Backbone:
């Protein structure tokens, strides 16, 4: 990812929001196990596609190349971080809130982020997103 990948999410005009990024370090042995499992899945999926005559697509190749890059980084001694981003959106009315949330969801998709609404968890999500004072997620 390029350094400004969150630009669409951060620089969306006219929406009151708070963005918090939480990083959790992963032990190197667990990261290596996860990479091996994912590599095995990708190789067996590619073998299955070849066996049934499907053509490999660019997304699968890019995912495998990314995995190899992560594996090389881990072998070189770099750590692995699990990242969680929380966005707290505020608006004066329910209609404005719906429009703002839709706009932020679209911006998150443009930033290559997976979006999940935290329905029924607003209090905990607000505490973690708007008041991130070293809280774990």
Residues:
């Amino acid at each position: 990812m390029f350094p400004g990948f969150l630009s669409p999410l951060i620089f969306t005009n006219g929406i009151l929001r708070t963005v918090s990024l939480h990083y959790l370090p992963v032990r190197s042995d667990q990261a290596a196990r996860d990479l091996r499992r994912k590599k095995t899945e990708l190789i067996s999926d590619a073998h299955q596609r070849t066996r049934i005559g499907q053509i490999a697509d660019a997304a699968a190749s890019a995912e495998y190349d990314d995995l190899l890059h992560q594996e090389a980084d881990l072998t070189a001694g770099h750590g692995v971080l699990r990242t969680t981003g929380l966005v707290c959106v505020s608006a004066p009315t329910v209609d404005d809130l719906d429009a703002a949330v839709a706009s932020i969801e679209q911006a998150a998709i443009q930033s290559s982020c997976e979006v999940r609404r935290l329905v029924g968890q607003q209090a905990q999500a607000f505490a973690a997103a708007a008041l991130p004072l070293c809280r774990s997620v």
Summary: The mean pLDDT is 86.
